[in-house]
Amino acid sequence: KSTLLDCISGFLKPSAGEMSLDGQVFFNDKLFTLPENRNIGLVFQKPSLFPHLKVGENIAYGLDSYNEGLVNYWLELVRLKDKINHFPHQLSGGEQQRVGIVRALAPKPKLLLLDEPFSCLDFYLREEMRVEVKEILKNEGISTIIVTHEVEEALQFSDEVTVLFGGELIPIGESQKYNSQELIQEIKRYFKENK
Q1: Which of 5, 36, 46, 128 is most buried, judged by most C-beta within 10 A?
Q2: CA 148 – CA 180 distance, rounded (Å)
Q3: SS3 35
Q4: Tell me: the pLDDT tens digits for 14-57?
Q5: Residue 147, beta-bridge partner list
Q6: What is the DSSP string of 36-85?
Q7: Beta strands 19-21; 24-27: pairing state
Q8: Can you give the pTM of this predicted structure?
C-alpha cells in the first residue's frame, strides 16, 4: 500500500501502466513527472517535520515564500496558532501530526495521500484527529487517498472504499453502505466469487 502511494507521488517509478490526475498524465511509458511537479501532498505514518524549523516555517516549506496569513490560517484550523514559533520537539505527537497534515495542505494539492497518518496516536487522539482532518479536507475540497489497516477508520474517513490485496485493487463502493462487519463480509464475498 505504501508502495502504491510512493508510485502516485513520484518517489517510485512503476514498471508499466499509466497514471493521471484530472486528465493530466504524469506517468506512462514515455513520461515520468517528478514529484515536485505533480501537486500531490503526502503525509507519512510518523510526523516528518524538519527539526531545525519552527512550526510556521515547517508549514510554509512547500510554499513559494513565507506567507504569514496562510500559515496562520492553517494553524487556526488545527488549533495550534499559539505554537507558530515552537520547534517540533516542543510539540506532542498529535500536534506534530497536525502540523504535518497542514504542511501538506498549505500548497493546495490536487490530491493528498495519507499513509496511516493516525496509527502512531493514542486511541482518543486518533478518533479526534480523524473527525478533524476529514472535516478540513471536505471544507477545502481536496481529494484524498488514505491507507489504513483499520476497517473502522476506512469507513469513518472515506466516501469510497477500495481494498488492495495481492497487488490487486478491489473497488468495494460507498463506505456509507457498510458497517465494519458488513465490509468484511463483502470483501470475503468478492474473493469467493472472483478467485
Answers
A1: 5
A2: 13
A3: helix
A4: 999 999 998 899 999 999 999 989 999 998 888 789 999 999 99
A5: 115
A6: GGS-EEEE-SS----TTS-HHHHHHTTSSS--HHHHHHHHHHTT-GGGTT
A7: antiparallel
A8: 0.83
